[in-house]
Write a structure and sequence with these properties.
four-stranded parallel sheet; 20% strand; seven-stranded mixed sheet; alpha+beta; RNA-binding; 26 helices
RNA sequence: GCCGGUGUGAUGGAAUUGGUAGACAUACCGGACUUAAAAUCCGGAGAGGGAAACCUCGUGCCAGUUCGAGUCUGGCCACCGGCACCA
């Protein structure tokens, strides 16, 4: 065996060995338990970044661990290959997006292999290939058939100079990122999918998945189911009525104005005869369409000069246009109760509109001061509300709702914050929407004509869609009539591709259907791992798709991801690594310098997965040093020539020191198994292996019994570390005389009899402060423990002149004596 | 703005169910080896006080619950993620 640790020699050798042995080919044996471990697939942006390395190392560690635990593991990898960056790169480099993407995929695949991830590469997929997206097109046509997809107008950011639609991130301070032109809002016809049809199920099924509470809460709030009342106002001098939705009908007597969105027909109508309003609406149309921008913009508004009639008082109430009212939520109009809604309060205060208190707290609430802010609690009773006076929230809600219903102008409804999913994108590098425009209207493309293939030899210059100018793509024929027709040139939102790839991996070899029976063998994904930034959108869309697939009979489960592990970001100097900040760390350079195992070890050791990970070059060097120590430990161990394998250690014959090392060994096995298998806290698993290593290195083995302990410990260290640093351990395993791969070695079992202790150390506190320690027999009773605690000299000191009020004994842990001066 | 998180030594973090705060590392300091340096090995170390034994304080800030709070509750502050066309 060579003396030094040489990762650059070992790692490619081991990777070749795995390759030739087909170590990571998926086994699908119905008699064995299955485990589908999936990491969010990467966008092929060029090269791997540290976030990828972290994500995929977590998945690989768990996959290897589960394989050693006897599971059939499916761990696939693929490419989320459509998207904007390819178009941006194309503009910059005059290279077609397809070529750029495929080059990147080749490079990044090489990097993943160099990191030693155990993927079943036979199942690799790239979403930009027709083999993949044809099934997405097929699914979309089914959605159209079922009425799940429909056309609707939607607002987009329009760059008037580049003549193109901009993504929200391409709008910087209200201007197009390339042209610098003031962005406008435009309404265009778009395809939408009725995700709201599944809103209740998407909400309720959250209870059935093993996901972090915070993610479930975010999704719940995003869906935002609320009980409210929908009703309409009579408009003064108009036949038409104004529809509003409110979750607080109990405050209806406190309405002092009504606010409509700038896109609301009333606003448009008012603008027709008023230049000021026209200018105001025009100004609103120059905002970004992003909700975050709207919510933070200063509240602005303008009176329309029109009025509605209060349904109960008959009072005239002014209609205002407010830039904070969303056209997409409810009916684009709200009744404003400034006394009991903070947003309404701010708007009213700014424009001098009256504030009318109609809810009063039951007890004196120092927070109740309507000249300072609105009081929004639902715990009060109605006042100044005429016939509705004196009612608590639920009763007032009911009474008002019933009254409106009796008048035939309102009803109780369930409303959702969730909106239908707009899936059309006016971009080139995406999956073509399989629709043709014929003289008989819109038609979906027939199954036998799928896929609609995206031409890959295009020139992208940043203005307009390259597809629209490709007559060979656009010009087609209506198969029903034989007359000319035009293809849709919009492509799908790339969230469409990432909403079902997890299922395709399980059914990767199916040529004649989107999914086959293998999908149900593997699904749902047992563990899904990815960035917390996907907590809402991607995960919600994928859950929705899964339910659609289920309703089409393609899968038989309700949820796609049984368990979810969300990883934090990789930071450097306290902030997210990014090119613009110039604080990126290229994993490739580290692999070249230290090898894949060191990079894997550092990223797993530096922090638990869900926390952000602060990058440290020194930390990487430290991880490498540890691997050198492990290498030296095994080398020196073998040098002694007394290594034994598979020898059952006889506990009775051990010295105290050997017994301690042996207990530590089995405690470590228990700890590492729990940390990797249940907690996913790899940093503490590694720390405990380091502790064990330190103990074994200090252990001076003499007799045969000692060497049996030492040998078992050395082998266990190699096995326990193998999911994290698979190359060096595979290499050392073979040095230790084994012929098989560690992937075929069962995960070690804890020997319970090795864990027992004769004595325990208990901490003794006096009034909650640590004052001493006692060594007690592990079977000592409470009286004995208390006597020993009181007699401990350090403790006794603090008991002098005191009366003991109480004594608390926490088994295995501590004693707390509560005393007071006599 | 709204929703969700995070905050512990010089640094990354540990403390899993309310029970020894700082495991394991990194950086640093001292020692061994070396002509020297690197590498490696051994040792030290939260802050303050003390010759020492020990004592006091200490988990972003302010209150509270408890025999006992890093952990639970309320209020603040700072930072991070998401906000529907970034993926």
């Amino acid at each position: 065996m060579e003396r030094d640790y040489q990762p650059q020699v070992i790692e490619p050798e081991i990777q070749k060995y795995w390759d030739s042995e087909q170590t990571f080919k998926t086994i699908e044996n119905p008699d064995q338990p299955k485990f589908y471990c999936l990491c969010m697939f990467p966008y092929p942006s060029g090269k791997l970044h540290m976030g990828h390395v972290r994500n995929y190392t977590i998945g690989d560690v768990i996959s290897r661990f589960m394989t050693m635990k006897g599971y059939n593991v499916l761990q696939p990898m693929g490419w989320d290959a459509f998207g904007m960056p390819a178009e941006n790169a194309a503009i910059k480099n005059q290279q077609p997006p397809a070529a750029w993407t495929y080059d990147n995929i080749d490079h990044m695949r090489g990097q993943l292999k160099r990191l030693g991830f155990g993927y079943d590469w036979d199942r690799e997929l790239a979403t930009c290939t027709p083999d993949y997206y044809r099934w997405e097109q097929w699914l979309f046509t089914r959605m159209v058939d079922k009425g799940l997809a429909y056309r609707k107008k939607a607002r987009v950011n329009w760059d008037p100079v580049d003549q193109t639609v901009l993504a929200n991130e391409q709008v910087i301070d209200g201007r197009g990122w390339r042209s610098g032109a003031l962005v406008e809002q435009r309404e265009i016809d778009q395809w939408f999918i009725r995700i709201t049809d599944y809103a209740d199920e998407l909400l309720d099924d959250l209870d059935a998945v093993d996901w972090p509470e915070q993610v479930k809460t975010m999704q719940k709030n995003w869906i935002g189911r609320s009980q409210g009342v929908e009703f309409s106002f009579e408009r003064k001098g108009s036949e038409e009525r104004l529809e509003v939705y409110t979750t607080r009908p109990d405050t209806i007597m406190g309405i002092t104005y009504v606010a409509v969105a700038a896109q609301h027909p009333i606003a448009t109508q008012a603008a027709a005869s008023n230049l000021e309003i026209q200018a105001f609406i025009e100004e609103c149309a120059h905002m970004s369409v992003a909700e975050a921008d709207l919510a933070q913009a200063p509240k602005r508004g303008m009176a329309t000069g029109q009025f509605v009639i209060h349904p109960f008082t008959g009072e005239e109430i002014p209609i205002w246009i407010g830039n904070f009212v969303l056209m997409e939520y409810g009916s684009g109009a709200v009744m404003a109760v400034p006394g009991h809604d903070q947003r309404d309060w701010e708007f009213a205060t700014q424009y001098g509109l009256p504030i009318k208190p109609v809810i009063q707290p039951l007890d004196d609430d120092p927070e109740y001061d309507l000249s300072e802010k609105a009081w929004c609690e639902k715990t009060g009773v109605t006042v100044h509300s005429g016939r509705f006076d004196g009612l608590p929230f639920a009763d007032a809600f009911k009474a008002v709702a019933e009254a409106l219903e009796e008048m035939g102008i309102g009803r109780v409804t369930t409303n959702y914050r969730l909106r239908d999913w707009g899936v059309g994108r006016q971009r080139y590098w995406g999956c073509p929407i399989p629709v043709i425009h014929t003289d008989e209207g819109l038609k979906t493309v027939r199954d036998e004509d799928l896929p609609v293939t995206l031409p890959e030899d295009v020139v992208v210059d940043g203005s307009g869609s390259p597809l629209a100018t490709r007559s060979d793509f656009v010009e087609t024929v209506d198969p029903d009539t034989g007359r000319p027709a035009k293809r849709e040139t919009d492509t799908f939102d790339t969230f469409m591709e990432s909403s079902w790839y997890y299922a395709r991996f399980a059914s990767a070899f199916s040529d004649d259907a989107m999914l086959d029976a293998h999908a149900n063998h593997w699904l749902p994904v047992d563990l899904y791992i990815g960035g917390i930034e996907h907590a809402i959108l991607h995960l919600l869309y994928a859950r929705f798709f899964h339910k659609v697939l289920r309703d089409l009979g393609l899968v038989n489960s309700d949820e796609p991801f049984k368990k979810l592990l969300t990883q934090g970001m990789v930071l450097k100097d306290g902030s997210k690594m990014s090119k613009s900040k110039g604080n990126t760390v290229d994993p490739q350079a580290l692999i070249d310098q230290y090898g894949a195992d060191t990079v894997r070890l550092f990223t797993m050791f530096a922090a638990p997965p869900e926390l952000s990970l602060e990058w440290s070059d020194d930390g990487v060097a430290g991880a490498h040093r540890f691997l050198k120590r492990i290498h030296a430990l095994v080398t020196e161990h073998l040098d002694q020539g007394r290594h034994v394998s598979n020898e059952l250690v006889d506990l009775e014959g051990l010295s105290d020191e050997a017994r301690d090392v042996y207990r530590k060994l089995h405690e470590t096995i228990a700890k590492v198994s729990d940390d990797i298998g249940r907690r996913y806290h790899f940093n503490t698993a590694i720390a405990s292996i380091m502790e064990l290593t330190n103990s074994v290195m200090k252990f001076d083995a003499t007799g045969d019994a000692d060497w049996a302990v030492r040998s078992e410990a050395v082998e266990a260290i190699v096995i326990l570390l193998s999911p994290i640093t698979p190359h060096i351990t595979e290499h050392l395993w073979s040095s230790l005389g084994h012929q098989n791969s560690l992937m075929d070695v069962p995960w070690p079992k804890v020997r319970e009899d090795a864990l027992t202790r004769h004595t325990l150390t208990l901490v003794v506190q006096v009034n909650g402060k640590l004052r001493g320690r006692i060594e007690v027999p592990s079977d000592a009773d409470q009286t004995t423990i208390l006597t020993m605690a009181r007699d401990e000299p350090q403790v006794a000191k603090f008991l002098e002149g005191m009366v003991e009020k109480k004594a608390i004994v926490v088994p295995q842990k501590l004693v707390n004596l509560v005393v007071a001066p006599a």
